[in-house]
Sequence to fold (512 residues):
Amino acid sequence: MARGLRFHGGITGLCAAAACLAGVVAARPAAAQVTAQTLIGKAVSDDSQNQEVTGAINRFRDRDIDGCRAILERVKNNNAKMPPPGVMMAMLWLSVNQLGPARGELEDCVVKFAKDPEPFLMLGDLAFQERRITDADMLFQQATRLAAEFTENPKRKRDFDIRCNAGSAAVAEARKQWETAQKHLKAWIELDPDNASAHQRMGIVLFQLSKPQEALEQFREAKKLDAKAVQPELAMARLYDDAKKRETAKKLIEAAIKEAPKDPAVLLAASQWYLGQSDLERAKAIADDALKLDPKSLEGRVVRGAIARVSRDYAAAERFFYDAHVQSPSNFPASNSLALVLIESDDKDSRPRPTWRCTARTLRSRSTRSRPWPGSTTSSAGARTRRRSSPRSRRTTPSPPTAPTTWPSSSPTAASATAPARSSRRCSPTSRCSRRGPTPSTCSRSSRRKPADARVHLGSGATGIASGAGMVRIVIPRAGRSAPAGGAGMPRRAARARLRARIRSLRSGMPG
Fold:
């Protein structure tokens, strides 16, 4: 676990992440974030077509796909500098994570706009994202050839050249062809010198070409362009660590801490590195400093909890992971680590206990072998008869934990007669039970039989059913309908009030 926390993956993961961030793989914004600039911002600078494009986006959100496509085709016919309609439709489909329709739009666009490089670039992006490196390479090469001949829109041509070089560099990095990657990254930086991701990736490639000083300069340039970029010394430490040069990596880690002592991100990265090296004291000290700078840092709490767990300080680990879980309940590392800490804890009160779920029906079915079922009645022939509830029962009221074995009732038949523990009733001829023995002991379904129900006539057309499973059900006839034998119909509100009083008396064991 400590190793996994260390740098969130090795240099291969860092290269892939840089490639994605650099725009090699087309971003998929959420549907609510798609705007007119998302679709046409890289093609035109004016906003004269924004209103129409916004209308097309609204049609797409309303699932009027044909209307959206018609508006985009009209926009393309009115302004040749616009992207093809299929490209814009594919962007909309990707914004809602619909890869199939997006790919179909791009395939149609390749046929209708055969000289436009953008469909090939987007297909190459998708292929690279799916790790189909050879397919991505062929698509980027075709896009490069078409971009060289493209003259419709200079702004789009510049964007095509950047994306072609970025994509080809990503393919070369995935194949560890560092010289080829350097050539494409150099062309990319010449086209867009202010792109921090390009400099970061160039630094990685130069390190792989055994040029660490030049790589450090590229990381520093990226940090100047983007304040959120990784600290240069920290980036170099990651590369040396992947190269199994731990001492050099340690020196660079300390240099990064000295260079940015007030940056919580740098301190947490250094703490994770020391945790991976099993230097728990140093990792704990650095993590505590990071939490002092940002006490509400989610990552800081998770890292500090991991250090405490490895140190077997389960009380501290539980506190940090619990705080992280409360701060972000959907954070899997926090919730999973909290569960593991509770399992590994030496405190018996903190250990989770197994929960045995037994329903009242299960408990009572086990006890029916030694005592009669409540509410059962016996016919003159000795066979037990079970009275089932009406299908119109709607109200259920659970019985108290200490429910009596027999229920008092105004009906002498239901209250006085009880059945023996074993009866001689045979299985029904239409049942699925293959054993039709004379007693439940020879029947495979006897252990699953429900206890009998006792029906209590409460008057006013209502019936209370005391179930052997420990439940009290009330059957109330609707107003205006004929009531069962034993009473006339009455308003439901009055029936409910009367039945509640009757049930209370039944529970207390007192006559109603």
Summary: The domain at 2-243 is CATH 1.25.40.10 (Serine Threonine Protein Phosphatase 5, Tetratricopeptide repeat). Residues 1-28, 353-456, 466-472, 479-489 have pLDDT under 50 and may be disordered. The longest helix spans residues 154-174. The two ends are 66 Å apart (CA to CA).
